[in-house]
Amino acid sequence: MSEMTTVACAEVLGISARQVARLARAGELTVSRTVGGALLVDGASVHRLAKHGRHNGRPWTAATAWAALALLSGERVDWLDSSAMTRLRHRLRASSASELCWMTRRRATVHRMQGWGKDTGLLHSGVSALRDPAMSELFDLTAVDRGADGYVCASNFADLVKKLGLIDDVDGDVTVRVVPDDAGYARDHVLIAAVAIDLAESLDTRESAAGTRVLEDLLDAFRAGSRSARRGASRQLV
Q1: CB-count exposure of residue 117 (10 Å: 0-12, 13-18, 19+)
Q2: 3-state secondary structure the chain
Q3: What range defines the domain where residue 19 resides?
Q4: Are residues 95 and 213 in the same domain?
Q5: Cβ(113)–Cβ(213) under 8 Å?
Q6: What is the C-alpha R_g of the chain?
Q7: Is 233 a domain residue?
Q8: Per-residue pLDDT tens over the stretch 146-189
Q9: Interatomic CA distance for residues 95 and 196, integer angstroms
């Protein structure tokens, strides 16, 4: 997808050009290059942000976003304090898949790139995760042989770029999602909820529908588990 000016981005997102610039600085929109001091933004990142609409509330920090995705994936979270965890659990029980996409959008800074190397060093997500037969079955999607999509921690990003010969390219087929080093998530294994949210944000209709379906299933399971835990605690008090 082609580059867009901040004015064009503002029209798509229904916000001001100044707000577009702030989103770009925060890493929520991908800047492709700067020409004469003017930002040019990757159009795909704009349409991914626009497709789920705007929701109430400030986006979570990377640490909170990854805590949410870990909880939904049935994983232990040890990087948030108890009060933050209580608030997060309450918000998750009331969230939809679309709201989750909105709230977790600062989980990583997305780079569209191209290079000569393979995707060694990336923790597979999105379409790349579908190479695992279990993931392909879960999402009911066939693995595709196109590009690469995955996560890397910020401290390893420069080495990855060098090793794979990566350069920024809005038309590139390598999506690199750079996670802050202080996000809590160890990035040493794939989280189902992260794969689901990356697919839900895809501009491909089938991938987006599959990711959204799995996200809703994970949210339903989380709510059901919370209710079961509360019922168990009530029985112990009787």
Answers
A1: middle
A2: CCEEEHHHHHHHHCCCHHHHHHHHHCCCCCEEEEECCEEEEEHHHHHHHHCCCCCCCCCCCHHHHHHHHHHHCCCCCCCCCHHHHHHHHHHHHCCCHHHHHHHCCCCCEEEEEECCCCCCCCEECHHHHCCCHHHHHHHCCCCCCCCEEEEEEHHHHHHHHHHHCCEECCCCCEEEEEECCCCCCCCCCCCHHHHHHHHHCCCCHHHHHHHHHHHHHHHHHHHHHHHHHHHHHHHHHC
A3: 1-50
A4: yes
A5: no
A6: 18
A7: no
A8: 789 999 999 999 999 999 999 988 788 899 999 999 999 988 89
A9: 15
Which range, 31-45, 48-62, 67-81, has the best average confidence (pLDDT)?
A: 67-81
Instruction: Supply 137's token pair.
Output: 């079955």
CA 28 to chain centre: 10
pTM value is 0.81
The answer to whether 222 and 72 have CB atoms below 8 angstroms apart is yes
Same domain, 23 and 123: no
Residue 55 included in any domain: no
d(CA 66, CA 75): 11
Q: Judge residue 1's burial from the number of C-beta atoms within 10 Å of its C-beta, 0-12 exposed, 13-18 middle, 19 or more buried.
A: middle
Amino acid at 234: S
Q: Are residues 36 and 129 in the same domain?
A: no
Instruction: Based on the fold, state whether residues 143 and 210 are members of the same structural domain.
Output: yes
Question: Quick one: 153 and 44 in the same domain?
Answer: no
